[in-house]
Automatic annotation (TrEMBL):
Keywords: Membrane, Transmembrane, Transmembrane helix
InterPro entries in the cross-refs: DUF2125
Protein name as catalogued: DUF2125 domain-containing protein
Bilayer-spanning residue ranges: 20-41
Pfam families (alphabetical): DUF2125
Amino acid sequence: MECPMASSTRSGQTAVTRKVVLLGALVALAMGVYSGGWMLAATLMRQRVSELFDGGDAGGAEVRCNDMDIRGYPFRIGLFCSSITVDDRFNGISASLGAFRSAARVYAPSHFVWEMDSPAEVRSALGFSFSAQWEKLHSSASAWFDGLSRSSLVTEGLKIDATAVADRSTATVRSEHGEFHIRRNGEDLDAAALVTNASVLMPKATPLTLPPVSASLDVTLLGKAALLDPAHDAAAAELYGSKGEIRRLVIDLGEGRVLTASGPLSVGDDGNLSGKLHLELEKVEGWKEALTTAFPNSSEDFDNAAKVLAALFGGKDSGSAELILHEGVVSVGIIPIGILPPL
């Protein structure tokens, strides 16, 4: 005769086994559904990237992601390219870029990070070519179907060579560290930039002897948020007729030579600047000497400007003033001190 307790035990074990099997089946099913969803997302991402990169029409730029691959399973998803090439037939620009890697978390695909390897080369039909090298270049961005909402770009050890094809003369720009940030602010566009220890080496025919420069810029461009929309119209990219505000501009030549400016600024339909800037300048004589050394042909203009500023500052070497720009003419109060060329 079978023991009732043993029968009960076997029945309990069978129930537990069924639950474990059911749980395993559910986990396997969930993993299968998740894997299928990831693969579908990867396929859609590949198609979307291909559509964005395809020039679309004769005037569009064609971008190629060589050896395109979608990676990151199971918790990330990202685009990988062994290199990137660009062919903009309308503007006569072609470029070749290094390896590209990006990644986004599967539960937050609108926020992603990316990085690109050095070097990069850009060729223009206008007779110039550019090559760039860097130690690090990485970025983060937030975007959805209507384009970017914000983005940041950081570079370390950047070196850019600009070469004139006609005579092979080359100008070189170097920077230890650089940052660029941009975001939508309603209909406006906020942008900020930072560069440290930037230097410029010009060809021997046009020497430039400015000391290393560090600078930062915080600006708002009115009505330009549409620039972050990949389908923006040409009017959004127009520089002429645009308005904005410099919240803060700082230029530091070292040795206490610091320029700070803020205020509204606009670009006329002819490219001339107009606006009113609050200017703070430290070491007027130091600025005059540095600029005169770098641009000797404009030494008289720098000398006149230094005299006007010294008079406004009560004979001191530092102070503040209101700078008026009217269609390219620069004045301090009612005294014109120079003319800026149109953009």
